[in-house]
Amino acid sequence: MEETHTDTLPLTMNSSEKKETVCIFGTGDYGRSLGLKMCQCGYSIVFGSRNPQMSSLLPSGAEVLSYSEAAQKSDIIILAIHREHYDFLTELTNVLNGKILVDISNNLKINQYPESNAEYLAQLVPGAFVVKALNTVSAWALQSGALDASRQIFVCGNDSKTKQRVMDIIRSIGLTPLDQGSLMAANEIENYPLQLFPMWKFPLYLSAALCLFFFCYCVVREVIYPYVHNMEDNTFRIAISIPNRVFPIVALMLLALVYLPGVIAAILQLYRGTKYRRFPDWLDHWMLCRKQIGLLALGFAFLHVLYTLVIPIRYYVRWRLRNLTITQATLKKEDPFNTSSAWLSDSYVALGILGFFLFVLLGITSLPSVSNMVNWREFRFVQSKLGYLTLVVCTAHTLVYGGKRFLSPKILRWCLPSAYVLALIIPCALLVIKFILILPCIDKTLTRIRQGWERDSKFSKSALNGKTDI
Amino acid sequence: MEETHTDTLPLTMNSSEKKETVCIFGTGDYGRSLGLKMCQCGYSIVFGSRNPQMSSLLPSGAEVLSYSEAAQKSDIIILAIHREHYDFLTELTNVLNGKILVDISNNLKINQYPESNAEYLAQLVPGAFVVKALNTVSAWALQSGALDASRQIFVCGNDSKTKQRVMDIIRSIGLTPLDQGSLMAANEIENYPLQLFPMWKFPLYLSAALCLFFFCYCVVREVIYPYVHNMEDNTFRIAISIPNRVFPIVALMLLALVYLPGVIAAILQLYRGTKYRRFPDWLDHWMLCRKQIGLLALGFAFLHVLYTLVIPIRYYVRWRLRNLTITQATLKKEDPFNTSSAWLSDSYVALGILGFFLFVLLGITSLPSVSNMVNWREFRFVQSKLGYLTLVVCTAHTLVYGGKRFLSPKILRWCLPSAYVLALIIPCALLVIKFILILPCIDKTLTRIRQGWERDSKFSKSALNGKTDI
Amino acid sequence: MEETHTDTLPLTMNSSEKKETVCIFGTGDYGRSLGLKMCQCGYSIVFGSRNPQMSSLLPSGAEVLSYSEAAQKSDIIILAIHREHYDFLTELTNVLNGKILVDISNNLKINQYPESNAEYLAQLVPGAFVVKALNTVSAWALQSGALDASRQIFVCGNDSKTKQRVMDIIRSIGLTPLDQGSLMAANEIENYPLQLFPMWKFPLYLSAALCLFFFCYCVVREVIYPYVHNMEDNTFRIAISIPNRVFPIVALMLLALVYLPGVIAAILQLYRGTKYRRFPDWLDHWMLCRKQIGLLALGFAFLHVLYTLVIPIRYYVRWRLRNLTITQATLKKEDPFNTSSAWLSDSYVALGILGFFLFVLLGITSLPSVSNMVNWREFRFVQSKLGYLTLVVCTAHTLVYGGKRFLSPKILRWCLPSAYVLALIIPCALLVIKFILILPCIDKTLTRIRQGWERDSKFSKSALNGKTDI
Fold first, then answer.
1. pLDDT tens across C286-297, in order?
2. Transmembrane segments in this chain: where (chains A, B, C) (predicted)?
3. Closest-CA distance of chain C to residue A112, Å
4. What ipTM did this prediction achieve?
5. Domain boundary, last residue among C163, C194, C225
6. Pick from A194, B203, B469, C439: CA 20 to 30 A from residue C265's CA?
7. Angle of helix A419-437 versus helix A387-402 axis, rounded to 10
């Protein structure tokens, strides 16, 4: 499922009049792709190269000259060269004086060098205007049309006029420039394409730890305990039965952990009596990766659904049901129908289905293209109201699952309760606290604090009664 | 799953040269967030405040002055103040004369005031150019980077030059301005962020009504009837069995209701002999919320699939199957295999799976980012051809489900047929009418009408033979 | 699920000052919709019509004049007329001299005429500046607001100034212009909206052929063979059992075919010792439609999952299980529990679930809006690492499914092995080759080739040690 393009328009053109001449230093893959793209959009391209004679595969119509000759042809020079080879530019300082140098380089590691490539370039050629841009788009995306890949191009530079010119060029080749400020931003821009899901790290470690803990816990209770006590070989439960206990537990706990930081923040604000003090860093970071935690929870819930639905086609389940039937048949004893069991079993399953359905809804609305379509009020309605509803339904599902067995002493093995009992602690506590927080008296105070009121401030009265800013 | 940002680039910069100075009135949350964002994008910010000394948490580098001092520093003044506190602006009319006032305020309710905030502002300060903008983006989205939240900013104003300037600023901070015309549009722009899924209201009420009706219908047939006749307690069916009857029925009916207005419109156009007369309002509204109705139908179909797949793990089903087996085992009687039952059961299930698969395809192509990738012809192919195929397959699924029992008198209880029989009325009627409409002779007339031909027009001949406009 | 709009802002405005006057030739649906939209965005519109008196349903405030009168009112004339009726323009050459003509026409078939409509127009009116634009957006999308439908507008033209003006107009009505170069691109732009999933054709034919082959193969083995040998009527297997063999096989083969071209390309590059030679055309095309092949594979996998999950509610399966139980019950013989069967069955199912889960993840990340959010490194990580993991898990799933029966002679029928054995050939071969390719010694050479090194080049040494361009 690599990204492809149904709608690339690889237009070969030789327009009679050209927009302007742009110089590209370097005839590597990236230089060539960019040159071709800009040719198609009407620019006249001059390549600068070490060996102008040897360069091949260049877009037809583009000139190839030596570096200094090429630089003289244009105001704007795009550097498609690795940072390690920037030093030859020092020989060209005269030619490059007053020109716009566009640094598009990337490094191999985050913070590989003390300063960013663009700042290093600005030191090498102090007379030039350095603009950082285009490092987030790949040669491949340029070649195959820009409709599919991300079209956001971060741009930064100290001189706003030259930055504006570079942004115009970027816009004219079908990409979306995004001004990120001065060259001090270059470091962040250069690190961006090297990141590997930075916001996912904490949620992934968290869920891995939870999975591991509950897996071991269940192995102890369901494999080791029966082996020690009855010499039963239950190892086959590791494949499906135990994952199908671990996944729903982790899903429920992660879902609760999505809403926990909001509640903690509310308590902190109530305690401090103001919203104008920063939250501790761990809470800030936690709040920023709530979406990722929620999506992981959805993944575990999805696995739980699949693991549950395959139950009837498992060999073990079929064998057990058949033997039960055979035993009863040989005893010629029919099972009486137990309405309350039917109710418990059905409502437990129905709650699970509804919870999963709401969960999927939440997941769909967190797709970027869907969340872009809704306004702020709708987004908050879905993520907050619907999210809590999901949590309530899923918690109820787990509670009803326990049914009569819940905390009965029979279920203890080596004093360990069922794993799902542990899983219920956080969601139940969270729901109780949330319920307290939405009691009218507390909710009113919280709303006032969030509108800017401060309990300890001498100006609080005026802030409340006077002009309140948005 | 709150919206977060993996790619916020919170750039602190102190660029040597600034773009231009912008003044923000009000140092509340929104004012500060906007100011910080604009600082990062190279603007020089001056805040206007009641108490310039007391303002805290402002972006470093920003000045805070009194309102009138601040207003003198810039051409453009962004009002981050609630409408209720606009009156102090009347004292500043001299200073504000000829300046651009950007109204970013929102109200708490739709149509809270007789005129929009922006128009009210224009009345208060007649000498200023009022532009409405930025009310749809939240302080939170500004703070955390604009990549994830909706970046569409509606802008309106009477003076196009000043509006253009505001749009340039919006574009430069990474948002997408959308010109909505003169200040008369301000009312709609202000109502936009207060809406809560306006297009979903009718579809939701409709499906709730259908669910309620069929739920009661099924309760009467499957819970009350057996209780009255045989004193059986079937209440446990309310949890799963009855929802699993109601959901597929509602899904099928809603799917048919997606395509019904198109057929009604075609009949109307055939009857009137022209496409140049407006449809009645109810039909217009119905056609506008077809996507929502279809998505709700998909939701019910999804629930139906889950409710069906859990059947074998229900206590009731296991109990019934076991008892059946035990009875036969004690009678030592094996069941003969019935090929036609196998065919009926399998083809009913296979049709259901295919129908659901097509339905999911329809749902995926209606995701905004997917529908953006296809051209108009492809979109119509998917939504029309694939949509009707889905309807045909789902209707066939329901018909085969009935199988031999369909309309047999045995199935009547208190003269009430099975619920699925009622559900089939609309889809079957729709498919018959659609079939008639695509007969060549009728289809030809319809196509001519849709290309602009009018039956009763004296100019129809010329329109057909002469120059036809697009 | 037709596309609708919750957020259309149908603004009726009579702004005191207008941006500029634009002339539209043709008062058909498209002309009117475009006119209305431009009116709303502040333009003053003059329509040109054959019968200015007869035109109806035009936006209020718009003038309707004869063609030549209308043309004199504005610099920019948008032609909302079919190509067949362009000839009247030759009479207006004097008036049209020096004006900008925007050609928005579409044809009914791809390459219907020898030259594009825009080039034909440029020949008819040589003195005018012809710009091709707006042909990809429908009248309907214009009417109902541009937030939902694709907002990308391809623009081309020989004169860059006039092209720029048209692009500004397009941007001001809320659409995103995309410069495609000179008028030679008009042909491709005109063909674009007529395409019907061009990239999907090969994948669809491929999977249809695979389905057909394996369907026939399975019918021979599972329906015809038992009929010939035992006179059993197994035709009912055609509805579910056989599709549920065919779909997973096709899914696995298609998934392998997604990654095969990459491996072939690597071998070709290793053999040639350079990356600077074009791949054969078939390989190029294959690589471009990998995403489509992968999505089809996901579709088949989804069907396989559904077909598998309904197994326990099928009449045939229930009948078989019941009879097995009855037979054993009458013999009063209980089945001993077989741990290795439980392990095989459970691990086979668990692998299938994990494989499907990873597959769904791949599918979600290939949604345009999701892939837009990740940077290049993340995208490659997901599509390459995660993709191969999916392939490994799914292949293992199939291998374990075979279990002990794999290639046992008992399973041969008319010398035909089980279908899944055939399905395993390509994935297993692919995984073996891939494993060889990632051995350090080979991987190193390949990486060097992909960084630009050439084995046979006299310059290879310099390219490696000297300055390497990006």
1. 988 888 999 999
2. 204-227, 247-271, 292-317, 348-374, 386-407, 419-442
3. 17
4. 0.81
5. C194
6. A194
7. 140
